[in-house]
Structures are given as structure tokens and as C-alpha cells.
Amino acid sequence: MTGRNTEPDPPAREGDRPVVVPLDPERIEHWRGVVADWEPLDRTQLDGIAAILDRVRARKRAATDRDDPHQYPHAA
């Protein structure tokens, strides 16, 4: 988008924090234009998204619980 030569980030090693990649301002403006015509989400849709995020977070917590002998490392 900006013509910069960017190489993909190497995969994160286990235990490392995810790499934060700055967003390209042109890409941000593109998506602002795309979503400008969308209707706002209603309360039911927002609650549904929140419920999904809660389940993902709970599964991630369970997957990283070191005291649990039955943990599933890839549950999230």
C-alpha cells in the first residue's frame, strides 16, 4: 500500500509475546471507508460477540493452567 518492502515477521517462539505490527494509515483509511456504510451493531449482536470472546478467554485460561493435569495446550 505504501510501496515499502516489508518482510513477514518470523513465527513467534513459544512463550514469546505476539509481535505488534503497526497498521498502515492507508489501510486504516480504506477500512474506515468500507465500514462507513455498514449499519451499527445492535445489542444482541454485541452480546453475542462478547459471549464468544468470553468463551475464547476461558478456554485460553484453561489451556494455560499449569496446575491442571488434563490441560489441552491447543484448546484456544
Automatic annotation (TrEMBL):
This is Uncharacterized protein. It comes from Nocardia fluminea. It comes from the Bacteria.
